[in-house]
Amino acid sequence: MHQTSSGLLRMADDDRPFTKDFEDLFSTLIVSLLPLSAYRVRLTKIEYTFLSEDAINNLSSLKFSQANRIRDPNNPSSIITTTITSTFSMAKDVARSTCQRFVEARLIELAGGKYQQVYTMKGSVWLLTTKGIAVLDYFCARNGIYEKQVSELADLGVIQLLHIERDPQTDKLIHDQDTIDVIFRRFVSAGGPNFKSSVKLADSDLLQDYRDGLGGVKMAAELMVNGKKYRNTFTGKATTDWLMDYSTVMDKRETVEVAALFVEYELVEPVAQDWTYMSQNPGCNIFQPTEYAIYQLIQGGRDLINGSGLRGRVSEREGGAISQRNGINVDSSTQRLNEILNNPAVRLLFREQLRDTHCEENLSFYQDVHEFLPRCKAATRAAQKARNLNAMDGIKEIMAQVYGIYNAYLAPGSPCELNIDHQLRNSLATLMTKVVDQDIAMIYPLQEAMPLFEDAQTAVLKLMASGRRPNPNRKQDSVPKFLSSSKYEQQLRN
């Protein structure tokens, strides 16, 4: 059974690709370039590199296939292979512009140590940054791609990217004050300020000092500005560099947006502003992302990193069944989980907890289904009202998404296989093995898929709430353990 999907790259209203689509496109490109080669740059051979023209040529016609072999529920002796193929195609000038975005997102860089921000059509040698490796490694793990070179790249050092929550409909950053507090803690470093060894060091000389991404932005312990001494200072450029290199932000404009909120929420303040930049960019009077703009940590920021946590801790109320939803008793752990999922700042921390205990697939599945269900309902309604080519293309895209979620999380042996009820798994397998010959007929299995996916989502919610794992060797990741974790105690404190 083969399902093909070809859709447009979703764009946000600021002409920026949706972050997840952008990361998937980048990772698909790199997988298509494997094995990466060793090219010489100024007489030095550099491993794991690729040429400009190779990436552009591959982007012009890019395909990514996922295959999953499952036993036919109606005939145990028969094996059914489901394959989903996503295709990307673009003109070469668009492909070059896309690669330019990869450079600006800090996913790739020019090999040989020469700093260059322009992606050329041919001749240049490129390699993945530590951020690019982290994005690729996550993509391969999620999609069950086992490539020797990906493991080798990961062994060179995968940084822990700060995952910043986004609105699934608009892809805009969630920037309420609690979420900004969480980002700021990582930005400064929970272990305390990360001081420069010398105030004379340029920001560009410090990038290699961050290593795993857990250290905060480099600060000057003391700095004289216009004859006055300031403590715990850093530049606007260092701020945006750190956010670009060590978070899931892919557009510099968003780093300026986040940094401006550091100022607005009274965590830092400017001690020297870049008036030239401000005159050229009238909207940047709060924060300027340059080496001439200098900011210092102030009392609000110090209080935050020294113990004052989020302003809205998820409560640990005791009790048994406290509410009903869809006829199912919801106990206190499940209610607390719902509070976590509905609070972007706490959800960000919870994701880190799940990643540490190798259970992030639970939250990823929940969010994928949460995004999928309204899109599926809208697409089936549109196709039933107007059975034209555009509506059917939408159905094909949603059907491909169904297979993608199923192959990633629910199929036996899938890379992120979840622990769900055997009967539910069989029902899903039966649905996924249905052969659809006509476009309009796809609507009916989609209508069957929605309640099954909702049931699977409910099962995963219970799993996250209780922390039960099928593998006794893996750590427990229950909600109570998260709420009582010493690692997050300060952030979760009122």
Which sheet architecture does the biggest sheet show?
5 strands, mixed
Percent strand: 15-25%
Radius of gyration: 24 Å
- Shape assignment: globular
Strand order of the largest sheet: 8-9-10-12-11
Give the averaged pLDDT, no decimals. 82
Fraction of residues in helix: 40-55%
Question: Uncertain spans, ≥5 residues at pLDDT below 50?
Answer: 312-330, 469-477
* Oligomeric category: single chain
Overall SS class:
alpha+beta
Strand element count: 14
Number of helices: 18
C-alpha termini separation: 53 Å
Keywords: Signal transduction inhibitor
Protein name: Regulator of G protein signaling domain-containing protein
Region (Disordered): 466-494
Domain RGS: 336-464
Can you offer a commentary on this structure?
This protein is an alpha+beta fold. About 6% of the residues have low confidence. It is built from 18 helices and 14 strands. A five-stranded mixed sheet has the order 8-9-10-12-11. It has a four-stranded antiparallel sheet with strand order 2-3-7-6. The longest helix is centred in the last third of the chain and has 26 residues.
Which helices and strands occur, and which strands form pairs?
Blueprint: E1 2-5, H1 19-33, E2 37-41, E3 44-51, H2 52-60, E4 61-72, E5 75-89, H3 92-104, E6 108-110, E7 125-128, H4 130-143, H5 148-155, H6 177-188, E8 194-195, E9 218-225, E10 228-235, H7 236-246, H8 252-264, E11 268-272, H9 275-280, E12 294-297, H10 299-306, E13 323-325, E14 328-330, H11 332-341, H12 344-356, H13 360-385, H14 389-410, H15 422-432, H16 443-466, H17 479-483, H18 489-492
Helix pairs in contact: 1-2, 1-4, 2-3, 4-5, 6-12, 7-8, 11-16, 12-13, 13-14, 13-16, 15-16
